[in-house]
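Quarterly update from the structural biology core.
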Amino acid sequence: MRPVNRGPSPQTADFASYRLALAELVSRLGHYCSYCERYIPAGLAVEHIRPKDAEMYPHLIGRWDNYLLGCVNCNGTKTNKDVLLDQIFLVDRDNTFHAFTYTPDGKVKPSEGLSDEHRQLALDTLALTGLEKPINEVYDENGELVYLDRVSQRRLTWLLAKSSKDDLETSPTEGMRRQIIRTAITRGFFSIWMTVFEDDPVMRQMFINAFPGTAPECFDATTGPISPRPANGLDHAGKI
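Predicted structure, tokenized:
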């Protein structure tokens, strides 16, 4: 998951309606679901980290620090589940890029080498939004896979990123690098692009710079992940 920094609230008071925060969130974080990383050009929603419908959190409905962006799939799975900040990894508080591994078959898994405690936090994070679900394979009348669900879309993006990397090896120009960036930001799935280009720190730094709101403090000078994430003043931040 892409670690993000939404920055300070654009206003001093809480939002009278959380919907009023949508434009500012999209401006700062881009048209991407904060959980599955998909590019959603229309239909993104203000996502309450701790759910607005839960009886214990009415004071957080208008709170900027409780907002992320969510797609219909992640929001629909998360619904009004209680979220204990110390029991999951969160993109605004932890280095979630370090916590998860993305694979060519579209799976998202806890990274190798995590402690037992951190592995459980990673598993619980995936379960919260359904990112651990298996692929739902749907084929058209010609037997071609239709990329409908999040897993199959991750598969497709991996293939696209790998093809882009092959193109760069054939034509290692700045123009090709810029074209890859244009493709990536209109496709989403930051972590897949970062993984496919893991041996190209120049390209990875370009991804970090190009995806709005990516937290630069989560990466070192060679684009390796910094863990734990430096303190940022949010509750239960820096778990990984």
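Helices lie at 22-29, 72-78, 96-99, 116-129, 150-170, 174-185, 190-196, 201-210.
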